[in-house]
Amino acid sequence: MKRDSRLSGVLHVLLHMAEQGAPMTSDQLAKAMQTHPVVIRRILGGLRDAGFVHSEKGHGGGWTIARDLAEITMRDVYDAIGRPSLMAMGNRTEAPGCLVEQAVNAALDTSFQEAEALLLARFGEVTLAALAADFHARMAARPPQTQEHIHG
């Protein structure tokens, strides 16, 4: 089963934007993310609607982060991208006639709900500022000759 990597990708894009400190075009972001500019515009359009990014058209325009990184959590971004499924596992059937499968489903449903609640709570604790600080700590730990490459 293919994993949904939208949250990871969006967080990645936002951190590249924060690092740049100036407007970035969809083309620039697409190169950094190794994807197509249309994908970037689609992603960022939803984040613009949520108030996390801003776009300016024309010369010198591009995408910028509209709020302080300390005010945006991973949970905020997760909500803004439509709350994709967190669990790849699920029940074999949703309304089984078999009592054994009903017992299995009940146990799995409770476990999945508890796991999702914990994960979403953790997402709410991690800000983009914390992610940026982690990135900077990792850059500082790299040998100087490799620090010019943010991506990779």
List the helices and strands and how they pair.
Layout: H1 6-20, H2 26-33, H3 37-49, E1 53-56, E2 62-65, H4 74-80, H5 99-125, H6 128-141
Antiparallel strand pairs: 1-2
Radius of gyration over C-alpha positions, nearest whole angstrom: 19 Å
* Net shape: elongated
Helix content: 55-70%
Strand order of the largest sheet: 1-2
Order of SSEs: HHHEEHHH
Q: Distance between termini? A: 26 Å
Query: What structural class do the secondary elements suggest?
Result: mainly alpha
Q: Strand share of the residues? A: 5-15%
- Mean pLDDT, as a whole number? 89
For the sheet with most strands, the description reads:
2 strands, antiparallel
Q: Ranges with pLDDT <50 over ≥5 residues?
A: none
The total count of strands amounts to 2
Give a quick precis of the structure.
With 152 residues, the protein is mostly helical.
Main features:
single chain, 152 residues, mainly alpha, 5% strand, elongated
